[in-house]
Amino acid sequence: MDNSLSPWRFCVAPMMDWTDRHCRFFHRQLSRHARLYTEMVTTGALIHGDVPRHLDFDPAEHPLALQLGGSEPDDLARCARLAERWGYDEVNLNCGCPSERVQRGAFGACLMAEPALVRDCVKAMADAVAIPVTVKHRIGIDRVDSYDFVRDFVGTVADGGAAVFIVHARSAWLKGLSPKENREVPPLRYGFAARLKADFPRLTIVLNGGLADVAAVDAALAQVDGVMVGRHAYHEPWFLAEVDRRWFADAQAAPAREAVVAAMRDYAARALAAGAPLRAVTRHLLGLFQGLPGARAWRRTLSDSGALAAGDADLILAAAAQVRAPRLAA
Ligand SMILES: Cc1cc2nc3c(=O)[nH]c(=O)nc-3n(C[C@H](O)[C@H](O)[C@H](O)COP(=O)(O)O)c2cc1C
Fold first, then answer.
1. Which atom of ligand 1 is nearest the CA belonging to 40?
2. 109, part of any domain
3. Ligand 1 site, CB within 6 A
4. Nearest one of 111, 112, 109, 76 to 91, comparing CA atoms
5. Which domain, by its residues, includes 58?
6. pLDDT digits over 12-21, tens only?
7. Domain total of the chain
8. pTM for the whole thing?
9. Are residues 208 and 320 both part of a single domain?
10. The domain spanning residue 302 has which CATH number?
């Protein structure tokens, strides 16, 4: 691998209910270098809840970032310390989530209206830990669609000690759109991320939003330091098998689907022994054969409630056996 490449060159986005530890272990079988992010964990959940349940992960998941939701500097510093102690490689602050529940807690995207507070949050976290403190944000909130807004936000927050900004390159419309619509309706403006890189050459700028093929990632990497891919990586995970060779100059061959299936069978057996239902693992695997003729049989077998209830990890092998052999080796 080329060590001059940014560790943020290719990231898989934090996604609630999706990028749990089982999903991340699966993604790690497909790429050794992609940087993985947890689902958002709120400071309240960590301070008052079951810390191991929220923070435990498999050592294979590195490099791994914990995403926090919160807006109280002392709480965030405390949670950043927990993240560091647990072995995370990075702690990321969510300034991009538009959900109403999150707005009531006064964090997520609405924090973009308070750059000085975000700077103080970042400073408290950066003072508390040695791992990088990074920020994931939008380019604006509501109908504010001016580059100056996001430039001033990044400039202020960088003063707190964040050097990596993950830019979901659309505004968050806090009123009137559901979180799902907020990932689709506000227009993408990749040019804003490129301008941030030009205006802040020393910061690491990572572009996120709507990237769904090799050409789009290549085009982004010509302008910024890294990309973050969310939905496409989840729905078509085989895309991740390209990442190491193509974007990290790692000559090691991409894994074979067969090897990934075998690794996930063994992982599922361990997860079952630890008390997880089989579905908790298999639900993330449904896209593995996406676009291939056996895809439907694979999905159907892995979603069969009766078979899942039997709790036998070999179901994953049985599902793969239905995808014809030459395609499995592809
Ligand atoms: C199901 C789902 C859950 C998400 N949860 C989070 C989250 O917890 N934290 C966050 O910063 N963004 C979250 N996002 C937004 C993604 O991280 C990403 O910014 C967005 O999907 C745009 O990237 P994409 O077009 O590559 O999917 C979520 C997105 C989806 C689809």
1. 8
2. yes
3. 13-18, 39-40, 67, 94, 96-97, 136, 168, 183, 208-211, 229-232
4. 76
5. 10-247
6. 999 999 999 9
7. 2
8. 0.96
9. no
10. 1.20.120
Task: Could you list the beta-strand ranges (E) of 81-175.
Answer: 90-95, 133-137, 164-168
Instruction: Give the tokens for residue 180.
Output: 């799902």
Task: Report pLDDT digits (tens) over 201-245.
Answer: 999 999 999 999 999 999 999 999 999 999 999 999 999 999 999
82-96, 139-153, 264-278, 297-311: range with lowest mean pLDDT? 139-153
85 and 186 co-located in one domain: yes
State whether 101 and 238 are in the same domain.
yes
CA of 229 to the centre of ligand 1 (A): 9
Cβ contacts of residue 222 below 8 Å, gap of 6+?
A: none
Q: Which residues touch 305 (CB under 8 Å, ≥6 apart)?
A: none
Answer whether residue 3 is part of any domain.
no
C-alpha to C-alpha distance for 167 and 120, rounded to whole angstroms? 20
Residue with the smallest CA separation from ligand 1 atom 7 is 15
Indicate if the pLDDT at residue 111 is higher than 50.
yes
Residues with Cβ within 8 Å of residue 194, at least 6 apart in sequence: 223, 224
Say which of 11, 97, 110, 121 is annotated catalytic: 97
Q: What is the CATH number of the domain that holds 68?
A: 3.20.20.70
> If you measure from the C-alpha of residue 69 to the centroid of ligand 1, how many angstroms do you get, rounded to a whole number?
13
Question: Whose CA is closest to atom 30 on ligand 1?
Answer: 15
Residue 103: per-residue pLDDT = 66
Residue 97 annotated to the active site: yes
Query: 205 CA to middle of ligand 1, Å?
Result: 17
How far is the centre of ligand 1, averaged over its atoms, from the C-alpha of 14 (Å)?
6
Ligand 1 mean position, distance from CA 139 (Å): 15
- Candidates 15, 19, 165: which one to mutate for ligand 1, based on the most atoms within 8 Å of Cβ? 15
- Bond from prior residue into 115 cis (ω within 30 degrees of 0): no
Q: Which residue's alpha carbon is nearest to atom 22 within ligand 1?
A: 209
